[in-house]
């Protein structure tokens, strides 16, 4: 089965190998970082009935320098944490990480003046 270890990204159409560097289970596209709502409880169980696209909305850090993607399901709103893989698009990851800094909910200029 040549395709047993890969899937096609529903968001960008990339053919994605399930074998990812730095993680045991690939659950998102390394090119656009989108995922799909397929797992219900544990990564890889494929028990969710939703199967809608999951948008990468943020990056957080777990432990010492492990980046974790926060995915939100477009259909049911479920949030999931997924470790990044070694070949994830670094530019998109940095954009996600920097996004809150580009639109702070308070006036940054005033903070600098007070400091
Ligand atoms: Zn993709
Ligand atoms: Zn869902």
């Amino acid at each position: 089965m040549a395709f047993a270890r890969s899937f096609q990204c529903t968001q960008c159409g990339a053919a994605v190998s399930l074998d990812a560097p730095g993680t045991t289970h690939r659950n998102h596209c390394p090119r656009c970082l989108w995922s799909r709502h397929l797992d219900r409880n544990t990564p890889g169980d494929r028990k969710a009935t939703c199967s809608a696209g999951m948008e990468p909305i943020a990056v957080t850090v777990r432990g010492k320098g492990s980046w974790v993607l926060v995915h939100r399901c477009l259909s049911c709103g479920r949030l999931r944490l997924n470790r990044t893989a070694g070949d994830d698009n670094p530019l998109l990851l940095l954009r996600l990480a920097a996004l809150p800094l580009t639109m702070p909910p308070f006036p940054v200029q005033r903070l600098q003046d007070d400091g």
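Residues 59 and 69 are 5 Å apart (CA to CA). Residues 9, 11-12, 14, 29, 31-32, 34 surround zinc ion (ligand 1) (CB under 6 Å).
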